[in-house]
Amino acid sequence: MSNNQPTAIYLKDYQVPPFTIKSVDLVFDLNQDNAEVTATLKIKRHPLSTDKTTTLILNGEQLDLLELKINQNSILEQTDLYKESKENLTLYQLPDSFELTTQVRIYPHLNTALEGLYRSAAMFCTQCEAEGFRKITYFLDRPDVMATFCCEIRADKTQYPILLSNGNPQKAGDLSNNRHFAIWQDPIPKPCYLFALVAGDLEKISAEYSTHPSNKKVTLNIYVEAENIKKCDYALTSLINAMRWDEQQYGREYDLDLYNIVAVNDFNMGAMENKGLNIFNSKYVLTSPETATDKEYQGVEGVIAHEYFHNWTGNRITCRDWFQLSLKEGLTVYRDQCFSADMGSKEVKRIEDVRMLRSHQFIEDAGAMAHPVRPASYIEINNFYTLTIYEKGAEVVRMQAQLLGAENYRKATDLYFQRHDGQAVTTDDFVQCMADISGQDFTQFKHWYDYAGTPLVNVTSHYNKETQEYSLTFIQNDNPAFLIPIAMGLLDNKGHSFLEKDLVLTEKESTFVFKDITTEPTPSLLRGFSAPINLIYPYSNQQLLTLMAFDSDGFNRWNAGQQLLQQQILAAVEALAKGEKINFDSTLVDAYQNAFKLSETNPALLAEMMSLPSESYLAEQMTLIDIENIHQAREALLIHLASQLKTTLLTIYRELNNATSFDVSATAIAKRRLKNICLAWLMRLQDPAIESFCLQQYQAQQNMTDVLSTLQLINNFSLTKRQVILDDFYQRWSSDPLVLDKWFSVQAQNQAPNCLDEIKKLLNNPHFSIKNPNKVRSLIGAFANSNPLNFHRADGSGYVFLGEQIQQLDEINPQISARLMRIFANWRKFDSARQEKIKSVLEKVLNNQKISKDLYEITKQCLK
Fold first, then answer.
1. Does the active-site annotation cover 307?
2. Residues 503, 479 share a domain
3. At 796, is the secondary structure helix, strand, or coil?
4. Better-predicted residue by pLDDT, 17 or 659
């Protein structure tokens, strides 16, 4: 590792800049092998700055400076007035107010990091969050500098007939040499990370939306490449639903005349909320029954909504600095979660969100990558687009909404929009609005923003039969004590819920006494997962069975079943490690037999209850991870349940496998999910008749959900037909990049011992490109994240493979290499032999002289 190590940036050091930028005029001349960018900035001394310096440092990377003017006078030859460096342009002897003009040349076709202005196939597009704008032109690249933008784009008319930027179109026309131009004006001040530009040969679908209550007409456009134009209808419908929902739930209307979305194939993230011109990973726009699964339909709906909701929670009100990232992301995730819950099943959406939180964010909170929702420092801001910022940040907003209640929460958000519209603010500003409306003191609540880790709460109960009093004592195991909302209920011995209450913990130890309790109850604790904590209560198996069968809270019915399953699997892991025979509790079969009654009334909840904890999640519940025995124990339980429940599973499968048409209603999605889970259980039995059902479902090609479900099963359980079916799928979909991502991902998760050899061959497939983030995630990422049995093979070959891919990627796209490195974060939970192999990989990566800041920070954290 070079001695020139990256340095950290600290929240405590925040200061307003000495100057600020009021307006920006940009002119882009786009060419095949370069782009020239002329920027004219009106700059003034910042009214809140006490720094009277006459020097200004602008951010800029990978820019060839062609011209530099102050108040229209060139200073390019006056080297005493400025200085260029690898990352900055420093200007000297500046007046309090001036106009700066720069002209730079950049090379989008060489930009594999996909930050700033780059090419995706034949299209120009941008990604400026968090610090990509500095790769376009010299600027104060920080979110608290908000300016109005005018952008003129010039390009070849044949190759790039569509020219788009933020805001509203002002003028367009022809130039000489078959070139043309378009001018866009965004009248609402914004930080530069929200700037966007797209130039390409695109088609669009459009709709008109009338806002409520203003009845303002807004044109909605979704731009895609011509071959994808028929896959945009669902995205457009989702956008309209999101606009209507935001008006109803938050009173927020859209503010421009035009809302554009563009789908691109090369994108580091899911999507970007650029003001008026959202740029999306095509994965979150394109759907059709033949090519997209139900989960992908739901993903499109959620991400479309998320980026639209950012218009107010992120764009109109933005972050003062990047330490406040959860101000916009946590709040907007909470908003999109509520929207998706209203569009589908509330209890299932909550289960899905908590499963994600526990399986990934809790792990992040417990390991080397732990950081607060509002971090105190960072080296590379791209590394803080984490589940803690997004998912835990959403839980922190959810708790505030619960503490205030629906009416006061709406008043508090109304106050937030009124008080801070057009500003760059902090999480403290948001919380203050909650406090001002409710009259509550939120000082203790702010611990959720400032401390890393998942709070641990132990609970004990006591029942006094003589006094008919029942008490619950909650003990917080962490310092300091958090403010924790606990939604709870009590069930009698017949499973009837007879008491529901919202408790609030504020002390290290809190006891609550309930009177007139005539029989010892079963407590239903943390209903709806009312706080992101680890809550430990010594439930008996019978209590868990009662909750699983009768609790009126759907989340806790699911959660009780998950606890039972986890106990059974981990006990089997222990038995296998000792060389003992596995014995599963017979009551679990009875519990599922009872749960199957939900197949008609609530198939969505039943499907969730049949989804066993993942191997990766189970691994994190162990002090020392036992990869092989976790896999064997989990499969043994599935075989046990499937063999005991075969008749019922077959009945449900046959009843649900009769749909003649496709729709994406919540009911239809639930039935398909339940049907395919039943088939997945049954396939463990290696019954030729059931394998025949699986093949028939694949061959019917009714919809991608059913096809992919069977492809995954054939990949792991039907070895004789495996290659034939994989080849068939490839031939059908070789021209569709998003569908081929599924083909790569299925093979990456194959549990056969030769999986890694096959993956290495797939790296040379003509449809795989290490420069495309979706392809990397679908093959390399799926192997490392979703195939623990093969990734963690004792010989360390999986670790070496991932390390090699990370190093290759780091030279291409540091954001993606750093995200893959996170997979090693929990390496100290493995046996000593595996630890040594992983540590060797980490040290090799860290010692690379050319390591990026992104990868350096994550690797260094892993090795702490």
1. yes
2. yes
3. coil
4. 17
